[in-house]
Amino acid sequence: MTMSKGFKYGLAGLAAAAVLCAAPVMAQETEAPAYALAADTAYIFNTLLFLIGGFLVMWMAAGFAMLEAGLVRSKNVSMQLLKNIALYSVAGLLYWLIGYKLMYVGVDGGFIGSFGPYSFDPVGGDALDTGYSTASDWFYQMVFCATAASVVSGTLAERIRLWPFMIFTVFLTGLFYPITGSWQWGGGWLSVQGFSDFAGSTLVHSVGGWAALSGALILGARKGKYGAGGEINPMPGSSMPLATLGTFILWLGWFGFNGASQLAMGTISDVTDISRIFANTNLAAAAGVVVAMLLTQLIYKKVDVTMALNGALAGLVAITAEPLAPSVPVAIFVGGVGAAIVVFAVPLLDKLKIDDVVGAIPVHLLAGIWGTFIVPLSNADTSYGVQLLGIVAVGIFTFVASGILWFVLKATVGIRASEEEEEMGMDKAEIGVEAYPEFSRG
Amino acid sequence: MTMSKGFKYGLAGLAAAAVLCAAPVMAQETEAPAYALAADTAYIFNTLLFLIGGFLVMWMAAGFAMLEAGLVRSKNVSMQLLKNIALYSVAGLLYWLIGYKLMYVGVDGGFIGSFGPYSFDPVGGDALDTGYSTASDWFYQMVFCATAASVVSGTLAERIRLWPFMIFTVFLTGLFYPITGSWQWGGGWLSVQGFSDFAGSTLVHSVGGWAALSGALILGARKGKYGAGGEINPMPGSSMPLATLGTFILWLGWFGFNGASQLAMGTISDVTDISRIFANTNLAAAAGVVVAMLLTQLIYKKVDVTMALNGALAGLVAITAEPLAPSVPVAIFVGGVGAAIVVFAVPLLDKLKIDDVVGAIPVHLLAGIWGTFIVPLSNADTSYGVQLLGIVAVGIFTFVASGILWFVLKATVGIRASEEEEEMGMDKAEIGVEAYPEFSRG
Amino acid sequence: MTMSKGFKYGLAGLAAAAVLCAAPVMAQETEAPAYALAADTAYIFNTLLFLIGGFLVMWMAAGFAMLEAGLVRSKNVSMQLLKNIALYSVAGLLYWLIGYKLMYVGVDGGFIGSFGPYSFDPVGGDALDTGYSTASDWFYQMVFCATAASVVSGTLAERIRLWPFMIFTVFLTGLFYPITGSWQWGGGWLSVQGFSDFAGSTLVHSVGGWAALSGALILGARKGKYGAGGEINPMPGSSMPLATLGTFILWLGWFGFNGASQLAMGTISDVTDISRIFANTNLAAAAGVVVAMLLTQLIYKKVDVTMALNGALAGLVAITAEPLAPSVPVAIFVGGVGAAIVVFAVPLLDKLKIDDVVGAIPVHLLAGIWGTFIVPLSNADTSYGVQLLGIVAVGIFTFVASGILWFVLKATVGIRASEEEEEMGMDKAEIGVEAYPEFSRG
Asked: d(Cα A138, Cα C272) in Å, to the nearest integer?
């Protein structure tokens, strides 16, 4: 960060541009100004989009951590925090080691890419073919992979052991997510069919949701959650401010999630589309909040703040499959229905005794399915049949692969804390650091 | 987010630019590079400014939520969180449905724009007339509208009922804020007079402050806040970390609030001005913190952390009316005086028995008036008289319109929780979700 | 934010560009499009990089505040929050008043720059020489200065008095940090030697660490921390969610810290390098988390969440000296070793009875030394000898200068709270505002 270095770089940049640009002009006029090359400018804008979008989606990892820390009981908060920062870290390492190439390199209409770690552009690289820096693209795709893993963490909270969860995360981020991702975004068989999932209602959120569902079924409900007589015991989260903060973080990050999925910002057309995506994304989430508030007021006579938060998230998940094409009323419709699904699905899951601690299955899986299915309403290039095909294919693969892995983990290392550990809380059992050591419990 | 799509878009962008640019050059030389069009580049930079500024100001909604959650008592925290995410959602929907066109379309020197929902540029739009994408502009203006509504929420905390507050928010964001906004930013009568309010000390912060003041007067103080013998009972906020986090979020968001109010980033001159605004904004806030610390140390012999936070916010509000023109010493002066006003106004409001739970009236209304009034000190194109005219005109309209609405709501649905509900806390009374269910109260 | 103003600016920008660009083309063809000047575009990109990088690093001030608020006991939380917002404010004011010019103006291979406040580009400035706006550069460098001061705050928590700490901050941000900074980034003697510290492992983090170490030695440990019989009494932090939030904020901000230290974004080469930096920075932090988790599991049989957080930070600090040149495996190695150093250094410091409340000395000083030393592994233009020279020179200056100041403060105003105040907590003693007034202590 030396000034002299800045000076050097600055001048180098200008000089390089000048040399490149001035050539044809110099011939006719010696004092002519040097113009910016269109390809250079587009490359910088595209790469900048990935970097900004990437740091916004990275920030969603903090959003999941806060949301989940707020929705679990205080005796399990440290565990939840640790799992979230750990899964983000593992996702980064695995997505570099094998995930990215598995998803994007050499898929060619098939079912899987190639194996091996990914190499970025060299220092001072000036490759133009891609239209953006490869490292920026990797960074952006990596944070998506981490998002899918984040979804799983919340559902299984309060009873899963740390290391089996980490092993699952290794497979999910290094193998399962990249494989289904390759089918569509890697140019695989599903994209050949004409499936459409703009920013990942299915490929990211539902993938996380299917993995969470299979885990919840195999892991079982928390002790005491469902009584013998069919009663459902509420286990309220320890901190609404953290849950709300997490939701706001996710909402903010979603502008990067959906907006930068345009993948290019170097033309008027692209940046205008990104703007539409920002507006639609925001309005779908807003509709989700309002619908969840109205429905819970009507049904329960009180407005449930956690439902309002999940309504926002459901709206966001639902619009993610197609945030560009819809008119505003359609975006509001898509987001609002997503929230309604969550309001009705949360008690339904409890009736089925599927214990989803933070509501991730309704939000990410069900609203993700809804958002993906409804794409043809606004995007004429798609069909309901192919959308269903994609939803089902990705769902079956992820559910089965995850289920097998959960079974293997259960049969070998074990995935569930003992009853005593669960009672004591995962923080004392496995972390040794209480989240709020000074605050007594009411 | 398909690679093939990225490839397509990337190449399409380059190709489009190439076609547009290469024409005049090709005639003379076949291998000539294609240059970027100045109008395209400026359009992308301008739109990007709105998008970045917009997500930063959107983030301020989280800042208000955290600030207010930290400054109310724990029995009212869930309510405060819900109100903040709900008002941000309602602001988005209403500002699309009627607010934006009311504020910006067809004002023509008058008092109001036109009615109806707003339409964004079509997908793949390439309109150039505006110099930026219309959806990006809408998004940026929308988050400002939400900010005005956020101000009201804190003042009326701990005793207002949820749904009347939401109805008020509908009118504020859909009607009141856009109308006074149209007078100035929409090119209405006030802008014709030569009023100046760069980023909204008056049009955003004071509008929120006037609406809050009228509400506080009609709603009355919290039960037990002011004793019969004139004593003032402190009701300390439940979490200083949340209040501090909220302040930092607001400070961060303010770079978008003031910086992107430059409205253009496509020229050296514009981006240089944005940089000045960043620096001045930061230094005004910094001065606010230091002044509040020194004054509270001198007056109370201890430094009040909530006052330091409000000092930062007062500095930010004060510099908002003119963050570009001031030299650094003037920026420090404007911010520092803003904080001093808050230090003296907070106890004064208590003497007047105006119960402002979070100090929003001193911070947003009084520092906003100060910042707007003092603009001519650094901006020679303005006059103190016209600045006063704007302050008074916007103040009367907002205070009266808000007051009428509060009265109507009070006379019809009722705006205040019962004594029992207030005692119990709004979370149990109306939300049904406690903020910290496991922590006993001291 | 008037529309008419936007219109004006937008058109002005386009018109200006058109006038500048069209000249040579017009001669030959009347309807020729106007091209963007390469120098203008690079200037805008460079300045935008400083603004985005700057607000990301500004956000790190909130990260330190949350991290420290989470790692101290609840009776000292308000104090910690206040110190963090106060030091960020003071850093801004001092770095404008004297710091920036001391660091960057007129160093010329020497040991110090010139004195006096810094002036930004005028309103509407269009200076081109620098390649970026001076105010954006000041803003970016200022937030680095604040970061160094943030490091000190955590180590000395729970027993230092407020105002002596503020006086120390004035000297650190106005004098000590800029002086050593001038040696390298200001083009001083150390940069002449060939020292390399890309984004400040030594110049920012170790400077903060040395100042913290000298303070810890002179201030002494907290009462009761180290027993007479050699036992070490754990004093666990009050909130793991806040500590985790702080870590995520710092991780996010680090993309600005390291990425924007490239100092230019106007060429393909620069933006490609920034992308590499993002990826390497993220992977070094991820490696830090995983290494800290594995080591604490192996050593303590439980995973310590605070160690995982500090592992992430150590990875970030370590990669900061050279985030561009390393291949991914080297970046993972650098970050992982940084975390290992922290895992072993934390108990070592306790054995030496150096009471570092938040672990800032291992994280910022030791991992900073490691990262700086190992630069030659990936950067062939550097040597281990010169890297050691820089580490030692900066260390001696900062340790001695800080030590003298701490001694003077101790001998005059006093730096340490009384035993009663320490027992009572700094919040009651000096702030008068408790952080969590409603929550009883367990």
From this structure: 12
Q: What is the pLDDT of residues C131-157, one digit of tens each?
A: 999 999 999 999 999 999 999 999 999
B66 neighbourhood in chain A, CB within 8 Å: 241, 245
Do B400 and B407 contact (CB within 8 A), yes or no? no
What's the whole-number mean pLDDT along residues C287-305? 97
**Rounded Cα gap, residues B116 and B379, in angstroms:** 36
Please count the CA atoms within 13 angstroms of the CA of A136 that sit on its side-chain side: 29
Q: What is the CA radius of gyration of chain A?
A: 23
For the segment C219-236, what is each residue's pLDDT rounded down to a tens digit?
999 999 999 888 999 999
Q: Which residues fall within 8 angstroms of residue C42, CB to CB, at 6 or more apart?
A: A10, A13, A14, A17, A36, C131, C264, C266, C267
Q: Vertex A121, ends A116 and A125: CA angle to 5°?
A: 165
**B41 — contact with chain C (CB < 8 Å)?**
yes
The radius of gyration of chain C from alpha carbons, rounded to an integer in Å, stands at 23
Phi, psi torsion values for B29, nearest 5 degrees: -150, 130
CB-nearest partner of C55 from B239, B252, B283: B252
* Phi and psi angles of residue B59, each rounded to the nearest 5 degrees, phi first: -60, -25
CB C175 within 8 A of CB C98: yes
* Of A140-144, B341-345, C30-34, C216-220, minimum mean pLDDT range: C30-34
Q: How many Å apart are CA A80 and CA A74, to the nearest integer? A: 10
The pLDDT, as a whole number, for residue A373 is 98
Residue C346's SS3 state is helix
Domain C37-431 has CATH 1.10.3430.10: yes
Q: In chain B, what are the domain boundaries?
A: 37-431
| Cβ contacts of C236 on chain A, cutoff 8 Å | 433-434, 437
Selected for mutation to probe chain A from C28, C71, C267, C274 (highest A CB count within 10 Å) is C267
Q: What is the value of pTM for the model shown?
A: 0.95
Q: Average of pLDDT values for B423-429?
A: 95
More reliable by pLDDT, C10 or A426 = A426
Q: What pLDDT is recorded for position A113? A: 98
Nearest-Cα residue of chain C relative to residue B308: C82
Q: Does C270 touch chain A (CB under 8 A)?
A: yes
CA–CA separation, C275 vs A135, rounded Å?
5
Q: Are A408 and A57 in contact (CB under 8 A)?
A: no
Q: Is the pLDDT of residue B31 over 60?
A: no
Determine the pLDDT at residue A135.
Answer: 97
Cα-atom radius of gyration of chain B, to the nearest Å? Answer: 23
Collect the ranges in chain A with pLDDT lower than 50. Answer: 2-29, 442
The CA angle B363-B369-B370, to the nearest 5 degrees, is 85
Subunits close to C (at least 3 CB pairs below 8 A): A, B
Binding-face residues of C in 93-112 toward B, CB within 8 A: 93, 96
- Are residues A47 and C275, on separate chains, in Cβ contact within 8 Å? yes
Question: Which residues of chain B make contact with A141, given a CB cutoff of 8 A?
Answer: 1
* C414: closest CA of chain A, how far (Å): 30
**Between chains, do B244 and C438 touch, taking CB under 8 Å as contact?**
no
B400: Cβ–Cβ under 8 A, 6 or more apart, which residues?
none
- The pLDDT value recorded for residue C27 is 42
**Neighbours of B (≥3 Cβ pairs closer than 8 A)?**
A, C
Q: What does the pLDDT read at residue B440?
A: 60
In the block, tokens 């929550």 appear at C439
Nearest to B161 by CA among A297, A141, C369, C85: A297
Residue C435: its chain B contacts at CB < 8 A? 239-241
Q: Give the pLDDT confidence of B210-254 residue by residue, as tens digits.
A: 999 999 999 999 999 999 888 999 999 999 999 999 999 999 999
CB contact under 8 A, A278 and B88: no
Identify which of B237, B247, B264 has the shortest CB distance to residue C6: B264
